[in-house]
Automatic annotation (TrEMBL):
Keywords: Membrane, Transmembrane, Transmembrane helix. This is Pyridine nucleotide-disulfide oxidoreductase. GO terms for molecular function: oxidoreductase activity. The chain crosses the membrane at residues 6-23. It comes from Urechidicola croceus. Residues 2-153 form the FAD/NAD(P)-binding domain. It comes from the Bacteria. Pfam families: Pyr_redox_2.
């Protein structure tokens, strides 16, 4: 049983996973089981080139971020389970508040999901009632967003990235995934505010 399973290994999903992973030393997070289904084939990052993102060197390719993000997650936070090359087809919420996530290869039980699959060709069954036309992308392209209130779709289901109704910019998607992660960490911390910061130790 996962405590949280992130669906989508693009900018929002990976940012969410890194943030959750970085809370490992906190008492409220130390026994939590975190996973991410890293399907990257349809990520916007595949063909992207970045010159306008603070912290990314000019000419950084999206393809390099896809690879290095996975390496960063497995090196720094190996307790976050990476489930590779699986595509989610369906989610099912149960009366006991658990969720079953069905992929094309297997299924997983979890208490929370973060849906971060982008706004293109959304086809995950079980979430139809939350689907609407994206309000900040060109209407003719018929992109999807999931109805949400500050990323919460319904109890146990969060949405992050462009699918949450944000414009398609790297920093916005990353911030959205990070925001969801901190909301989940606050819940784990009995509602008390949290932040996870590293700093340089000055002797
Ligand atoms: C060509 C191009 C150039 C860009 N250039 C810039 C730029 O210069 N500056 C800038 O700020 N932004 C740029 N962007 C936008 C930026 O890349 C996106 O805003 C960002 O990637 C959105 O993040 P996301 O996590 O919402 O979606 P994505 O990064 O697209 O991630 C979605 C993830 O979900 C996965 N997925 C999809 N369906 C499923 C499923 N059923 N099950 C499991 N996983 C699934 C996908 O494979 C993907 O990994 C560019 C985008 C493109 C396409």
């Amino acid at each position: 049983m996962y405590d949280v399973l992130i669906i989508g290994g693009g900018v929002a999903g990976m940012s969410c996973a890194l943030m959750l992973g970085s809370a490992k030393k906190q008492l409220y997070a130390k026994d939590k089981k975190i996973g991410i289904i890293i399907h990257q084939r349809t990520s916007s990052l595949q063909n992207a080139l970045f010159n306008n993102v603070l912290g990314l060197s000019p000419n950084t390719t999206g393809a390099s971020i896809l690879k290095e993000g996975k390496d960063q997650l497995s090196t720094l936070y190996p307790h976050v389970t990476q489930i590779n090359n699986e595509k989610v087809l369906k989610v099912e919420q149960h009366n006991d508040k658990t969720i079953t996530v069905y992929s094309n290869k297997s299924s997983f039980k979890t208490k929370n999901i973060v849906v971060a699959v982008g706004p293109k060709n959304f086809a995950i069954k079980g979430l139809e009632e939350f689907v609407e036309l994206h309000s900040k992308l060109t209407p003719e392209k018929e992109r999807t967003q999931l109805k949400n209130s500050d990323h919460l779709v319904t109890s146990g289901i969060y949405v992050a990235g462009v699918l949450a109704g944000h414009r398609s910019q790297y920093a916005i998607a990353a911030g959205s995934g990070t925001s969801v992660a901190t909301d989940i960490l606050c819940n784990w911390n009995a509602g008390k505010p949290v932040k996870i910061h590293d700093s340089i130790i000055i002797e």
